[in-house]
Specification:
The complex is a heterodimer of chains A (529) and B (256). Chain A has 529 residues and is an alpha+beta fold. Chain A has 19 helices and 21 strands. In chain A, strands 14, 15, 16, 17, 18, 19, 20 and 21 form an eight-stranded antiparallel β-sheet that branches. The chains are: A alpha+beta (529), B alpha/beta (256).
């Protein structure tokens, strides 16, 4: 009777804690309780290990000793039910891999709690067993945020906790559980004239979007998650349940206490598990118009954007697609745009407002050498017009069939954008890579899809280098190494550069206060020391 | 020349809801379940509103046959741009026996009463999937029908309609008045916005019963049972190709 995966759980996690590499075939043995030889023998027989270095560790607690992973599983099953605990191969595999290019590490166990109370008990159990806790929403992240680098228990809070708890139409707010994605929420409200405008592209869990501080194409008008979250219910590593803005609170503003909501927004599961979010809703715009216009250079496009913002035009979407991206879109969607930088625009408001906004921007674009200004009002025509932008990612992948993309994400003050784009393009060309660019130019945030052959580690390395260089330039220009995707694992070094040692130390102190055993999503955002 | 349009819409269980069969196996659970306007009816309402925006239609009357809760459905249609509503009230417990033939009779009577030029419906309702009402209404009125419409245009003589059929697209011309039914690709319906929802509260909705229109409610169809599809069985692993072939023969899939 081989218990797959589970006996390894405690060994690996504890080893890393004790400072050993997780890949070393080392067995930690509780000294003084079992005869080391007998334990080793049995373990080696079960696991079929060829060689093992045995070390003697200081006696652990009684619980630890009685423990054998089986114990952990039983305790978890007692809380969430046996059907909601799994260490099956495909289950753990799915829960360690997000949608980014970095290979993820599988957790040892996945649990599917059905309530905040259960999440709290799960955390208490994991804390007692000293086992890492990794929160999981929809797995649509891009920076390896859910990878269980030290093994542990993945807490999938979206499968069974999937209700919209409250919708307050007159107050423009809603309370949702982690299983509610933004598209689900919008579907639910579509007949009520309300919508949740933060749109990162993927159909992500709203609570997950809070954890990563997500943003999207609408941020220039409606803000990011940070501006659209009123309150969070969070379960800490020790099982305590807190409400970051007050219990049941949902006023539009408050001066009460520390801003804990801001602390947890974007904390990427390293401080606690978000079990419900109170978010802001907005009125569906009366009228929507879309427009597309090309420019000879990125500078022209950015100048248009800056002037538009200076004229206080309340743009809903301003997307910049560079000439490489336009070529990809033409080929993929059968379009015939000129292969030059293009702005994709969306206007929201009443009919007369939208008309006047469009006029203003049309004139500004023309002043900046803008080409043909195409625009549409009808839903289907708008969808057609924006096809290029919507399918950008797939168009990029189609440029080199079989390739994957390392999607970068930096944000700089808008005025610095042309310089950064020019420098990055030069870098891409120098390294012989293909890197189409798409930018939420109204926020100074842009993405490069660096294509690489998954079978060519050298190419992937070059992509990483270009991405890192881009992030460093962004920091140097007064920006940030990640505008929307979060730090995850890949940008930890860059975070240090951006904040300096003292800044990161403060983050470490806060984490140390809330998660002294370093169990919450270890290996992310910043290193232990 | 501007046309009067009667649009039918139905309150159905929301398409995103997981359907559950009632314990008595005579229907599905509707209590406490989210309902919304039949998606094809949204398309029909949207098309009518666009006809009005193109100045081809002058008035849009939306009608629903449903329980008191269906008043919400009418409000949504009014918020999308319909001018006034008619709510033919059917008690909630009689909804299952109120069938397409009854609806067709109601619509036919209203079409004549209101002297409309176009009766516009969704091609089918997503709860019963009947796809009968438009056709039967046309037959009762003895009007031409343009069903599964994916494009509607006005001509001097009447309407030109492109229909989605199995082999592709069929273009037909009809005189007016006519009955049309909306297919999926006719348009993308607009969302009801808050200002329009507020305006819709002030639009007139008249209530009546089928009896007021002289329509008898006796059901012609009896639902015998409603069942879940069979639960998917686990597959069988076969040891090798011979085993596979033997199993295929055993199950009668091989003539050899």
């Amino acid at each position: 009777a081989v218990m797959r995966g589970v006996p390894q759980l405690l060994s690996r996690a504890r080893l890393v804690r004790a400072g050993f590499s997780a890949s070393e075939p080392v067995l930690a043995v509780q000294a003084g309780i079992l005869q080391p030889d007998k334990f080793t023998q049995t373990f080696v027989q079960i696991r079929g290990l060829k060689s093992s270095k045995v070390i003697y560790q200081a006696p652990l607690t009684a619980v630890d000793i009685a423990d054998s992973g089986k114990q952990l599983k039983q305790e978890l099953e007692a809380i969430v039910g046996p059907g909601n605990v799994s260490s099956g191969e495909s289950v753990v595999l799915q829960h360690g891999q997000d949608e980014g290019p970095h290979p993820g590490k599988s957790p040892d166990i996945v649990v599917f709690p059905s309530s905040t109370g259960e999440v709290s008990e799960v955390c208490k159990i994991c804390t007692r067993h000293n086992v890492p806790i990794i929160p999981y929403g929809t797995g649509t992240g891009l920076e390896g945020g859910i990878s269980a680098v030290e093994g542990g228990v993945c807490v999938n809070v979206s499968k069974n906790m999937n209700k919209i708890l409250q919708i307050h139409q007159e107050d423009f707010s809603a309370v949702v559980q982690p299983g509610i994605s933004r598209e689900m929420l919008n579907q639910e409200m579509r007949a009520d004239g309300l919508w949740f405008p933060v749109d990162p592209g993927a159909d992500a869990s709203v609570c997950g979007m809070c954890a990563t501080g997500a943003s999207g194409t609408n941020a220039v008008r409606y803000g990011t998650m940070k501006e659209n979250c009123l309150n969070l219910e969070v379960v800490l590593a020790d099982g305590r349940i807190i409400h970051t803005a007050g219990i049941g609170s949902r006023p539009k503003k408050s001066s009460a206490g520390y801003n804990l909501t801001s602390l947890f927004l974007g904390s990427e599961g390293t401080l606690g598990i978000i079990t419900s979010a109170t978010i802001c809703l907005h009125a569906i715009p009366e009228s929507v118009a879309a427009a597309v216009v090309g420019f000879p250079t990125v500078q022209n496009a950015v100048d248009t954007v800056v002037m538009t913002l200076q004229c206080s035009v309340p743009m809903a979407r301003m997307e910049l697609l560079d000439e490489v991206q336009m070529k990809a879109c033409n080929e993929y969607s059968g379009l015939s745009y000129p292969e030059t930088p293009h702005l994709f625009l969306e206007f929201h408001g009443s009919e007369s407002e939208v008309e006047s906004q469009t006029e203003t921007v049309r004139d500004i674009a023309a002043d900046n050498e803008g080409g043909e200004f195409q625009w549409a009002v009808q839903q289907e025509d708008r969808t057609k017009l924006w096809t290029a932008r919507h399918r950008a990612y797939y168009a990029d992948i189609a440029l080199r069939p079989g390739c994957r993309s390392l999607t970068t994400d930096v944000c700089v003050p808008v005025s610095a954008l042309p310089d950064l784009v020019t420098a990055t393009k030069a870098d891409i060309a120098e390294n012989g890579l293909i890197g189409p660019m798409v930018g939420h130019v109204g926020d100074g945030n842009f993405h490069t899809m660096l294509l690489f052959d998954p079978a060519d580690p050298e190419e992937f390395r070059k992509c990483k280098e270009v991405a890192n260089k881009m992030a460093r330039s962004a920091i140097a220009l007064g920006g940030t190494c990640t505008g929307e995707h979060g730090v995850g694992q890949g940008k930890m070094a860059l975070l240090e550069e951006q904040f300096g040692k003292d800044g990161i130390d403060v983050m470490r102190q806060i984490k140390g206060a809330l998660d002294p055993q370093q169990l919450m999503n270890p290996g992310k955002v910043f290193s232990r020391n | 020349m501007a046309l009067k349009v009667l649009v039918g819409c139905k309150r159905v269980i929301d398409y995103a809801v997981k359907i559950r069969i009632k314990p008595d196996k005579l229907g599905v659970v509707t209590e406490g379940v989210k309902h919304s306007m039949n998606p094809f009816d949204e398309i029909a309402v949207e098309e009518a509103v666009r006809l009005k925006e193109r100045k081809l239609a002058k008035e849009i009357i939306v009608v629903t046959c449903g329980p008191p809760q269906a008043a919400e459905t009418i409000r949504t249609a009014l918020a999308m741009g319909a001018d006034r509503g008619i709510h033919v009230e059917i008690p909630l417990d009689q909804m299952d026996t109120f069938q397409p033939l009854h609806v067709s009779k109601v619509l036919a009577k209203l079409a004549e009463k209101e002297k409309v030029d176009i009766v516009m419906l969704g091609k089918l309702a997503i709860d019963d999937d009947s796809n009968q009402t438009a056709q039967m209404t046309a037959s009762l009125l003895d009007w031409p029908q343009g069903v599964f419409a994916s494009k509607i245009d006005k001509t001097d003589a009447g309407l030109e309609i492109i229909r989605e059929v199995d082999g592709g697209l069929e273009t037909i011309r009809t005189t007016l008045p006519a009955v049309l039914s909306a297919d999926l690709r006719l348009n993308e319906p607009r969302y009801a916005t808050l200002p329009n929802i507020m305006k819709a509260k002030k639009k007139k909705v008249v209530k009546m019963t089928p009896a007021d229109l002289g329509v008898d409610m006796a059901p012609r169809i009896q639902i015998v049972s409603v069942e879940d599809p069979p639960v998917r069985e686990a597959g069988q692993t076969v040891a090798d190709v011979d085993d596979l072939v033997a199993k295929l023969k055993e199950k009668g899939f091989s003539s050899a």
